[in-house]
Amino acid sequence: MEYEAIIGLEVHAQLLTKSKIFCSCTTQFGASPNTNTCPVCLGMPGVLPVLNKKVVECAIKTGLALKCEVAPYSVFARKNYFYPDLPKGYQISQYEHPLAKNGYLDIELEGTVKRIGITRVHMEEDAGKLMHEIEGAVTGYSYVDFNRTGVPLLEIVSEPDIRSGEEASIYLQTLRSILRYLEVCDGNMEEGSLRCDANISVRPKGQKEFGTRAELKNMNSFKFVRMALDYEIERQIEVLEEGGTILQEARLFDSKQGITISMRGKEEAHDYRYFPDPDLVPIEPGKDWVEEIKAALPELPQQKKERFTRDYSLPEYDSRILSTSKALADYFEECVRLFPQPKAVSNWIMSELLRLLKKDNREIEECPVSPQQLAALFHVMDKGTISGKIAKQVFEEMYETGSSAEDIVRKKGLTQVSDGAEIETIIAKVLAANPDGVEKYRNGNTKVFGFFVGEVMKETKGKANPKIVNQILQEKLKT
Q1: How confident is the model at residue 139 (pLDDT cuts 50, 70, 90)?
Q2: Pairwise CA distance, residues 386 & 412, whole Å
Q3: Between the CA of residue 224 and those of 47, 177, 236, 321, what are the distances in Å?
């Protein structure tokens, strides 16, 4: 029997506000445990939450970017559950009346576009963090850090339109890119700024009813999302084919073993006993404010990709890579402004620059070569001062040291040899040393031409002007 997976994602995005959602404590990451706290976020008796307006603005901005309807009226609710990292015994979230709903996000799959529905975008506060002390195989004490308690989150819930781990990974990458463009979330999955839960079930192909779903909790990388979902699909199919029953439960992904592990029974909405929070008034953003936020939305990744393809005559593939992040797109455009050859700039960024950044696990914002320095390197190449091969060596040193192309070329004597007489002398020497190759070429084996070019480049340590080498070499071989 053929099965298909039914997957919906719940993404939690930490907002880039300076203070928490209901108090003035800082949201700074990495502070000493329990130092970014106050009576409000610790849930002390007699305190009242006050909503951070910036959080609402970020939520509206995100809802609009995801083509959602922004509700004229939304309500905060109390979601009741009892964990050590939840000091109030409930989380302030939204339930029946979210801020935004009924949107969508288009993702690209092997040249086709698939639309994933967005059920809702709502605001909530984060819980604290548990840290477990483990000595060998024995668990010792557990500690609670409340610094993260009250940090503002957006929960973005998709429709169950995703069918594989690969689709889920692409959806998450696309969503992260949009959130970063909007500057509402830094998307740092390692620090927990972007986390993902997945609801997954399988059913026989053609069946309309959904199967029993499991929830995979707190996945924090695109790779792990794909691996966890692919494993869980296979696990559920295997259970059904053996006549078993899928349990409705929460599961964790063990990245070392590449498997999912049962965590606890899955709660239903009624288990949380939602009710409107009596300490917070309903939110009524008003049409004028929503329109003001909409008018200020930046150019988003898909729009930028289309503009790069149209205005710079780039292939769609190049445009998609370059528009992945706003910082990378800005870097590219600044280079093109200074050296107006878009395809040449695109090729270099995608092959040389991104290769080095990936090797060092760096973001473009951390790149030690500025757009101005890279454009200067292009101008040095364009003048014929250095060859493309030497330029790659120069660029690697620019990346390592931060020095300019001109300084590196001057200090290392890398100026390209363009003197025709000097190159002719070197070619004569190479041909004299390889009479068999000359004979093969004259007998119709033109492949040896590349060998001669390589030998000339060896003699000049890669500094000979390739155009002049090719021209003189062809003339010499004909005679």
Answers
A1: low
A2: 12
A3: 40, 18, 18, 22
**CATH number for the domain running over 420-478:** 1.10.10.410
Give the model confidence (pLDDT) of 224-265 as tens digits: 999 999 999 999 999 999 999 999 999 999 988 999 999 887
Using alpha carbons, list the distances in angstroms from residue 199 to 202, 225, 228, 375: 11, 12, 12, 47
Closest among 104, 137, 135 to 119, alpha carbons compared: 104
Side chain identity at residue 92, one-letter code: I
Backbone phi, psi, residue 86, to 5°: -120, 90
Name residue 20's amino acid: K
Please give the model's pTM, rounded to 2 decimal places: 0.85
Q: Where are the domains of the chain?
A: 3-289, 299-367, 420-478
Count how many residues are written for the chain: 479
Task: Provide the 3-class DSSP secondary structure of residue 244.
Answer: coil
Residue with tokens 């390592």: 400
Show contacts of 366-374: CB within 8 Å, 24+ apart: 367/331, 367/399, 368/398, 368/399, 368/400, 368/402, 369/395, 369/398, 369/399, 369/402, 371/331, 371/334, 371/335, 371/338, 372/334, 372/338, 373/398, 373/404, 373/405, 374/335, 374/345, 374/348, 374/349, 374/398
